[in-house]
From TrEMBL:
Domain Integrase zinc-binding as annotated: residue spans: 163-220
Region named Disordered: 56-83
InterPro entries documented for this protein: Gypsy_RT_Integrase-like, Integrase_H2C2, RNaseH_sf
The protein's name in its UniProt record: Integrase zinc-binding domain-containing protein
One Gene Ontology term of the molecular function aspect: nucleic acid binding
């Protein structure tokens, strides 16, 4: 029998339970997934400052985002539609009308509330005389000449702004070449313009503009069928070919003739005439 003395008692190790083993395993996994932490005091202080800066930056970013949302909600923005595209202001229209030689007599008459006389319009251009004819439909709003137009069938009334020559090309461009216009043809572009604008021979100018549009010519079918090229008649001797034409009716002669038959030889270019009834 062996007796243990009090001085030589064996120190038994502390046993770890099964529940604690799982806890230590989790700690080991976390330690493996993280980098080794240096316990130097300066680096810990720098680490703390870095975390504080990140936190402050996050708070600042959130506050800025909230301010942007509030500013966007409080701002009064117009609805996006085709009417919000840039247009010519009233000041530019009024100045252009006053400087235009065709509008100037009409503008001065409307300003003085006195229609120009017929004698004053005799020496004016056809465009100015056209505006003089439709005088009863014209009036001034903020020094801009406006025309009131009513459809014959009573389906609509329009207030049309008279456009001077220097601004017409830009307005046709907005109605035809703009990305929201779609390069429509003259039959649809002209009525679209007439809802807001008016000038002398508007439809003719719109048609000429669209006919010279490179994009329309490249992507649309030709409006007119191509014609065969002109040729020439070849002759080798006099009287091979005679060109005839009838001139008249003219005042009747004592012999009751009122037409003239003109004959030209194609080779010699010699001509003659003969009266006929």
């Amino acid at each position: 029998m062996i007796l243990e003395t009090p001085d030589k008692r064996q120190e038994t190790p502390n046993l770890i339970g099964e529940g604690e083993i799982g806890q230590y395993k989790d700690i080991g996994k976390k330690a493996e997934s993280r980098e080794v932490i240096n316990c130097d005091g300066q680096e810990l202080i720098a680490e703390g400052k870095h975390l504080m800066q990140n936190s402050a930056r996050s708070v600042q970013t959130r506050n800025q985002a909230q301010r942007d949302i509030r500013d966007t909600a409080d701002s009064k923005t117009a609805k996006t539609n085709i009417e919000n595209r840039p247009t010519v202001c009233n000041t530019t229209l009024a100045k252009a009308q006053q400087e235009d030689q065709y509008f100037k007599p009409i503008y001065e008459g409307l300003k003085a509330d006195k229609r120009p006389t017929k004698e004053e319009m005799v020496i004016s251009s056809p465009e100015t005389r056209h505006y003089w004819i439709i005088w009863d439909t014209l009036f001034l709003i903020n020094d801009v000449i406006i025309r009131k137009f009513s459809k014959m069938d009573g389906t609509g009334n329009y207030y049309q702004c008279l456009v001077s020559k220097q601004l017409r090309k830009n307005i046709i461009f907005q109605a035809h070449d703009c990305i929201l216009s779609g390069h429509l043809g003259s039959k649809r572009t002209a009525p679209k313009l007439l809802q807001k604008y008016y000038w002398y021979n508007l439809k003719e100018e719109v048609n000429n503009y669209i006919m010279r549009c490179d994009i329309c010519e490249a992507n649309k079918f030709p409006q007119k069928k191509p014609k065969a090229p002109l040729g020439s008649l070849l002759t080798g001797a006099p009287l091979d070919c005679l060109a005839t034409d009838i001139l008249g009716p003219l005042p009747t002669t004592p012999r009751n003739n009122k037409y003239v038959l003109v004959v030209t030889d194609h080779f010699t270019k010699c001509g003659g005439d003969l009266s006929c009834s």
